[in-house]
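Please complete every field before forwarding. Incomplete forms are returned to the sender.

SECTION A: IDENTIFIERS
Entry label: holo-357
Bound molecule: NAP
Molecule representation: SMILES string

SECTION B: INPUTS
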Amino acid sequence: MRRVVQFSTGNVGRHSLRAIIGRPDLELAGVHAASPAKIGRDAAELCDWGEPTGVLATDDVEALLALKPDCVVYTALAETRPVEAIEQLSAILAAGINVVGSSLVWMVAPRHAEDWVREPLEKACAAGGSSLYINGIDPGYSGDTLVHTALGLVTRAESVAVQEIFDYGNYDDAEFTGAAMGFGVAEDAELPPLYLPGVVASMWGGQVRSLAAALGITLDEVTQRTERWFTPERIDCTMMTVQPGEMAAVRFATEGVLNGKVVITMEHVNRLTSAAAPDWDFPPDGHSGVHRVVVEGDPRIEINTHVSHPVLDPTDAGCISTAARVVNAIDWVCDAPAGLVSVEDIPQTAVLNGLLW
Ligand SMILES: NC(=O)c1ccc[n+]([C@@H]2O[C@H](COP(=O)([O-])OP(=O)(O)OC[C@H]3O[C@@H](n4cnc5c(N)ncnc54)[C@H](OP(=O)(O)O)[C@@H]3O)[C@@H](O)[C@H]2O)c1
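SECTION C: PREDICTED COMPLEX
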C-alpha cells in the first residue's frame, strides 16, 4: 500500500485524486488546494467521489510533508509559475518524498530538459534520496510510448511525425492553455507566450532530442514553427468566447533536422471548434481528437489514438489519460533509485499492476 498526497485538484488532478481514492493499493494521505474555496473540503467533494474520505484539503505544504507520504502526485499548474513550482517540487523531493506529476512539461524528457529546470530538481532528488517522474499524454505518451511502439514495427525509418489534433473548445483552462496559446487574442495584440522565440522548441524540444538520442542520431538543429488562425465569426465554447478577428485555432511544431531534412516532427493542431482552420489536418473518422504517430519507412506505420469517455468530454478523457500516465507509475517510482525518472526507465508492464479495480 502506497500512501499518496494529491497536490491540486484541477483538470488533471481531480482525476488522479479519484484514482488514488479508488485504487485498493493506494491510500490517500492528504490533498493540497490553493483556492480558498477548496481548503477544508473533503477530497471526495473535489473530485465528485460518492463517499467522504475524511481527508480535508489544505494549503499547508509543511503539514502535508509531515504526513511522510510515499509519493506526491503533483498536478498544480506550473508553466505560468515555473520558478515557484520548481521550489515547491524541490522542497517535497528534498524531504525524501517521491513525486510523480503532469506539471512542468519540460521535464517529460528529463535527461534532455534544459539545465535551468533539470538541475535544481536533480539536486533535490539527490538531497532527499527521492525520485521525480513527469509525464502526460502530450507531451508524454504521443512523443514517447506511442513512438516507441510504432518504431518497433519497422526495420528502417525515414521520419517520425507525432501529432496531437484536438478540439480544446471544452477545455476549461482559459488561464493557461487559453492565455498561453493565444486563443481569443487578436492578431495585432501583444504576442502570447507560445509565439515568443524558442518557447515551443523549449517545451517539446526535450522529447525531440530524447528520440534522436534513442535513434542514435545527432540532429543538425531543433527548430520550431507556429501558425495562428483568426475566426471571422464569434465562437462560444467552454474555454471562452472568441470575437471575430481573434484566434480560434493554432498549429505549432518542434522539428528535428538531420542533413537538412526534417526527420522528427512533434506537432499540435488545436481548435476551439471544428469549423476553425478548415484547411488544416483533422482527426480521422469524425473523431474530435487524435494522438497520432506516422513513421515513414519500411513499412509505413500510422497509429491513431482516440481517447473518449461514456459520460465526460474527450478533453476530460485526455486529462484522465494524463493522470493515468503518472498515477500508474507510483509503485515503480517509489522503488526506483533516487533521481529523475524517464519513461524508458520503467518496464512497460510495471505500470499495469493494480489497474483492474
Ligand atoms: N503533458 C500533458 O499531456 C498534459 C496534459 C494536461 C495538463 N498538463 C499539465 O498538467 C498541469 C495541470 O494541468 P490542469 O489542466 O489540470 O491545470 P489547471 O486545472 O488549470 O490547474 C491545476 C491546479 O493548479 C493549481 N494552482 C494554480 N495556481 C497555483 C499556485 N500559485 N500554487 C499552487 N497551485 C496552483 C490550482 O489548484 P487549486 O484548484 O487547488 O486552486 C489548479 O486546480 C499543468 O502544468 C499542465 O501543463 C500536461
